[in-house]
Amino acid sequence: MPNKLSRRLGYLPLMLCLCSSGFAQQKHNRVMLILIDGLRPDQITQAKMPNLFALQQTSVVFADHHAIYPTVTRVNASTIATGSYPDDHGILSNMLYMPETSKQPLTTGESRNLILRAASRNDHILAKPSLSEMMTADGKHFVGITSGSSGAATLLAPEARHGTATLINAGLADGKVVAYPADVDRTIRERFGVQPAHEGLTSVLWTQKVLREYILPELPHDLVIDWMTEPDSAQHKYGVGSPQAVAALKAVDAEVGKLLATLRERDELSSTDILITADHGFGDIAGTIDLRTIYREAGLQPDEVTALNDSPTSSFYVHPHAGADFQKKLTSLTTTMARRQDVQLLFTRSMTGKGCKAGASKGSVAGTFALEKVHLCTGDGPDLVVSMRPTGQKNAFGEGGSVPILQDTDAPNENAGVHGGLNPWMEHIPLICMGPHFQGTRTLQEPSGNIDLTATMAALLHVRMTGIQGRNLAVDLTRTGAVSHHQYEAEAFGIRRYLNTTTYMGEEYANDGER
Q1: Closest to 384 measured CA to CA, from 398, 400, 369, 396
Q2: Of the CATH numbers 3.30.43.10, 3.40.50.300, 3.40.720.10, 3.40.50.970, which one belongs to the domain with range 4-282+423-477?
Q3: Does the keyword Signal apply (predicted)?
Q4: Where residue 198 falls among pLDDT bands split at 50, 70, 90?
Q5: What's the whole-model pTM score?
Q6: CB-CB neighbours of 409 under 10 Å
Q7: Residue 384 CB: number of other CB atoms within 10 A?
Q8: How far apart (Å, rounded) are the C-alpha atoms in residues 107 and 11?
Q9: What are the structural domain ranges in the chain?
Q10: Model confidence over 247-289: pLDDT tens digits?
Q11: What are the Cα distances from residue 11, in Å, to 53, 132, 454, 467, 470?
């Protein structure tokens, strides 16, 4: 993997590649990123999503595209916003662990919690600057519109509340506004009313109407991020492949068709680079495991551990974080987890204590991989991360990806579908690209990931970003390189576990695990 310095300086060759590829001759190029929440590649079929299926036949398809792990919305939103991994941007889970503020974990789904986090970080929600900030500094216009949570929207453009971008979502400022800045909020309220909050497809339809009838014809926009939160909502509630989820897929596909038709009518389709992807894939819940039972087996009290539950992935903080008992407690919890047949992968720091070592692959506790290998090692980050093992069984609708989840409350789980784990159903997502810099019909088998989206968009827009990671995918059309596969091994108690990764052009992508 490239070191931090090479990544920080990686933009210079990126810009040189742009010029040598003829990018500098483009007078004005717009970019649109369409995020379809929870979409799996195998769902893009003629029957379910005819518009996307047709696009795949005439566009550039990255067939081995990866979500960021944990495969949850707000972690991936933060990576897309900044072009950096979780250990750099600071959002390691869909939940926040802020013991100085709250005894209980806080959801990143609510913007108020992110703003609370910023209060102790010089008013910065993320530890890295966002593309929206860099665009504003460069005199370009960012517009983000999402039907999802206020937290996910805020992470796309963290400083929009201070006037650096246009951001549209129903839950901003605790629901007091539907958009930043104020004049956009006022116009939307007058013409479209208030966005239905968290109402699945109804919310999606509202955002798409605003996009087609207001943003495209009236607002200046160099980059539009359009985040549709279906089929995620339907799949959570009813399961992958359910009639409701299939209906959501068809509806979202129809909205994509309408959007492309609008761009064509406005004579903007041929001058807009369009990237269509997802934040994560999906699976189904195959039972729940009570963490409190595991704590007892490890000889720990519930108040000695805090768990951030991303469903099939959980991140554990052992208390106290210092002292002679810390390593003993961590080892006890980790070994208890490692003995379980339903645990797929375990990650701990490569060093005892709180240190991190770049490039490490083995964790400090036997049977674990290094948190550094999946970019989750920070000084105030989790001590143990566990990803559960898929069952190999299909759900009631014939779909794969079922996996048990971890839970530490008595609250009944009312959902059917889930994501968050490190397995092909949740890690592998689609990426379809079209436009002036993605011409022709090609299917690329080389790996790519959401880590690469920001570098790509910044390059297409000629925006210089500092500290950027990932690579410019548009350049992949004019270059080739060797793809290498690696399988890391960790063994404990007679159980061998394997972490599979693929490396291409200096980036290493986590694929899945085996045991």
Answers
A1: 369
A2: 3.40.720.10
A3: yes
A4: low
A5: 0.93
A6: 10
A7: 24
A8: 33
A9: 4-282+423-477, 284-418+489-514
A10: 999 999 999 999 999 999 999 999 999 999 999 999 999 999 9
A11: 34, 17, 12, 9, 10
